[in-house]
Amino acid sequence: MTNTVHIPVLTQELMALLNPVINGVYLDATLGGGGHTRELLDRLGPEGVVIAMDRDEEALERAAIEINDPRVRYVHGSFSDMADKVMALGYHGIDGIIMDLGLSMTQMKDESRGFSFNSKEPLDMRMDRDLPLTAGEIVNKWSERDIEKILREYGEERKALQIAREIVRQRKRERIETCLQLAAIVERVYRKRGRTHPATKTFQALRIAVNDELNQLSEGLSNALKILKKGGRLCVITYHSLEDRIVKRFILAAERQEGSLVRLNKKPIVPLRDEQRRNPSSRSAKLRGAEKL
Ligand SMILES: C[S@@+](CC[C@H](N)C(=O)[O-])C[C@H]1O[C@@H](n2cnc3c(N)ncnc32)[C@H](O)[C@@H]1O
């Protein structure tokens, strides 16, 4: 495996929005490479706590070695269970929650995880290796119709039907084992390459399906409301429009219908041009924040 370091995104903007209190209790629900957790620790006093959660055990193991700080409590699991996990640790009110969605660069570049188009490894894409479904199972076992549906809904892929058809045609000849094989099938449908790889949307769709990402997000947001203290802040960074729509609607509904949250920013905060240049994977990031009433 490679050792690519994840560059944290929108860090200063996130910290400004979170506005940590010196000895507060915070949940970093997407620890990843630990960049945001480290920034938070720098701002907290000796009694401060960061509950650092990830559904990827490898991320937790790496961070536990690299961030050697008694103020951090590591938790394995999905943020859709954050309320139970946090309460099981004995915390009942949280001062702030960070959700920085999607994948870390470390996961993306680790070929054995099967997220990257260039990987000769099996199509896996599970963030948590305990999950039952892999991308390989979807492309080799699901019906053409179901594959088309996820490509259209989760990938917003305009050639969903043609790609699903080609996948089913190819798998009759031989099982589609690797990421490279799938990328080549999509390339054949597209014929020519633009600036982004033609398989980008297909890979995004499969990843969302394998990890049930949109349902996890909705449940994670509802959980966040349960454990935030009055005045506590929820900050979410999304990387594509499906996620951003869920976050935006959730915050608006909580503000207008229940009166339980108030938006901290009406328009999403996006990375400055300089950050986008230094870290191209930050380009699609959008940060939204809300305060518990
Ligand atoms: C973009 S990275 C976070 C990077 C981190 N903020 C940093 O500064 O290094 C996203 C992380 O969230 C994790 N993740 C994604 N969905 C999750 C979920 N439902 N529950 C817990 N962790 C999740 C991924 O495994 C990945 O490690």
From TrEMBL:
The keyword Nucleotide-binding does not apply. GO terms for cellular component: cytoplasm. Keywords: Methyltransferase, S-adenosyl-L-methionine, Transferase. GO terms for molecular function: rRNA (cytosine-N4-)-methyltransferase activity. It is an enzyme of class 2 (transferase). SUPFAM superfamilies: Putative methyltransferase TM0872, insert domain (SSF81799), S-adenosyl-L-methionine-dependent methyltransferases (SSF53335). Pfam families: Methyltransf_5 (PF01795). Its EC number is 2.1.1.199. The keyword GTP-binding does not apply. One of its GO terms (biological process) is rRNA base methylation. Residues 273-293 are annotated as: Disordered. Belongs to the methyltransferase superfamily. RsmH family. PANTHER family: 12S RRNA N4-METHYLCYTIDINE METHYLTRANSFERASE (PTHR11265:SF0), S-ADENOSYL-METHYLTRANSFERASE MRAW (PTHR11265). This is 16S rRNA (Cytosine(1402)-N(4))-methyltransferase. It comes from hydrothermal vent metagenome.
